[in-house]
Amino acid sequence: MKEKIYLSSPHMGGTEQQYIVEAFKTNWIAPLGSNVSEFENSIESYLRKSSHVAALSSGTSAIHLSLILLGIGRGDEVICQSMTFSASANPIAYLGATPIFVDSEAETWNICPHHLEEAIKDRIEKGKKPKAIIAVHLYGMPYRVEEIEAISKKYDIPIVEDSAEALGSSYKGQKCGTFGDLSILSFNGNKIITTSGGGALVSRNLEYKSKAIFLATQARDDAPHYQHSHIGYNYRLSNICAGIGRGQMEVLDEHVSLRRKMNVFYSELFKNDSNITVFKEPSTEFFSNHWLSCISFKNSDKNFNPDGLREALMEENIESRPLWKPMHLQPIFKDAPYYGDKTSETLFNNGLCLPSGSNLDNQARERIKKTILAYTNS
Ligand SMILES: *Cc1c(COP(=O)(O)O)cnc(C)c1O
């Protein structure tokens, strides 16, 4: 069997283990220590825009805490981009709130401003104003920042910016992770950088950071004994994992540029193929980290379709994956309200994510190219 080519696998920079050794030497084998604060500092200076960062155990826990900080609870409604990974929406359900799903638009694949406003108006008319908007930069592509922010201001509904896939992306030169009232990052194993597992909550509001850390460390009141006036969580990032993060931050920009090169590789590969388009920025204002490079098929039939290509790649031990299946089509969310025109459903039916790692070499690229051309030319 040929060596497996993954969709997106961890790619160490080299200094990560030094920081882990440091944690052992100082005996901070705990969810606190200097790696945690240094990792936070390095993300803060990377994002700029006076961001305050709380390192957490996952991106999902960061979304959960964001919603808690916005005061969301039982019976509330929260708008969420439908086309996304389930972790964007699950925390709404943790809190006993109802997700209201909104479709994507065709250029960024992210939340559609038109359907977002339609959803807000209709929910208000039905008697409940949504309490937050969860917008996602899918595959690293920034959402329509200005249009979405304008709607958020007009109706006074805060944005939770799900930037789990978009560390290193930017819109008009401003980094993703700095646009929401609260923003979240993920450092899971397959993301642009990894701490093996981890995430962060980001905000310009320092109070949100302190409150997030308070809630993430079991919500202990200021007393010598254990006293609690809030329900707490065990959501802080470990000092070992944060050590990996420190090393990863040193190579983030290099890895973004390598992922973007993978996107150029696919653009070249498909440039004369009128049936397949590579997902790209709609204008130069958008800068995607191209966490995953995706394609969509214009005309599929039973012999030529995304699933056929996926299987042809699998035969060669090359991983590819369908796009995120929209949340309004998921069994678990089938009763949740949805506003849209099936754009995300069409994308899901016609798209495919291709191997995109920053650690793929020429040999891997040649194998991918050969397999894809054998399928598209057959
Ligand atoms: C990965 C991901 C998350 C969750 O992050 P974890 O660190 O895996 O909990 C949330 N939203 C999106 C869009 C993601 O891709």
TrEMBL record:
Residues annotated with N6-(pyridoxal phosphate)lysine modification: K191
Keywords of this entry: Pyridoxal phosphate
Coiled coil region boundaries: none
Top-rank taxon, per record: Bacteria
MF (Gene Ontology): pyridoxal phosphate binding; transaminase activity
SUPFAM superfamilies, per the entry: PLP-dependent transferases
InterPro entries (alphabetical): DegT/StrS_aminotransferase (IPR000653), PyrdxlP-dep_Trfase (IPR015424), PyrdxlP-dep_Trfase_major (IPR015421), PyrdxlP-dep_Trfase_small (IPR015422)
Matches recorded under Pfam families: DegT_DnrJ_EryC1
A GO BP entry: polysaccharide biosynthetic process
Annotated active site: K191 (proton acceptor)
Family the UniProt entry places it in: Belongs to the DegT/DnrJ/EryC1 family.
Name by which UniProt lists this protein: dTDP-4-amino-4,6-dideoxygalactose transaminase
